Amino acid sequence: SVCFASFWEIFMASILVLNGPNLNLLGRREPHLYGTMTLDDIEQRVRTQANASRVAIDWLQTNHEGVMIDHIHSVLDQPPSGIIINPGAWTHSSVAIRDALSAIECPFVEVHLTNIHSREPFRAHSYFSDQALAVIAGCGAFGYEFAMITLLANLNQG
Ligand code: CA2
């Protein structure tokens, strides 16, 4: 089965993109902080990039912690090649999502639109960063694209 997994990954890598609470408001409120792109705009850009790299994308945004955890559990037995996660405010609060992610046997990249280190002090701590393959903060929507490049580069090395 290990052989089959690598065989499959050569032809079709898959990336799960997880977005936490309030990110559905992007582009509609606080553009000075979070930019003018909507989450749908970001998803379109990521899907275009994925198509060009022959990567399958599974995209989720939810405002409900349990929904996020259940979705992570749903890929336990068939993990994607990698996960891109912007946990939103759960970055600073959720041991539960951290634990769920740790159970999945694939690397993840943590993305933040803003530089969480230049904002309120409570945003500087993340429950995810020490487990992440990479952390990208302050690059706006580009962060998702950089995260995909990082995951694919890591796949090709492994
Ligand atoms: O910078 C990021 O991507 C964050 O993960 C965004 C979260 C914030 O709690 C984190 O500290 C950093 C907030 C997402 C909420 O996005 C909004 C967009 C428009 C209007 C209001 C909130």
Which keywords apply here?
158 residues; alpha/beta; globular
Quickly describe the structure.
This protein has 158 residues and is an alpha/beta fold.
Helix-strand makeup class: alpha/beta
Radius of gyration: 15 Å
Bound ligand species: ligand CA2
Strand neighbour order, sheet with most strands: 2-1-3-4-5
Instruction: Please tally the helical runs, counting DSSP H or I stretches of 4 or more residues.
Output: 6
Biggest sheet statistics: 5 strands, parallel
Overall 3D shape:
globular
| Low-confidence spans | none
Strand portion: 15-25%
The level of helicity is: 25-40%
Question: What string, H for helix and E for strand, traces the elements in order?
Answer: HEHHEHEHEEH
Separation of termini?
Answer: 17 Å
Layout of strands and helices, then pairs:
Elements: H1 2-11, E1 13-19, H2 31-34, H3 39-52, E2 55-61, H4 65-73, E3 82-86, H5 95-102, E4 108-112, E5 134-137, H6 142-157
Ligand CA2 binds at residues 22-23, 25-26, 29-30, 34, 86, 88-89, 91, 112-114, 116, 123.
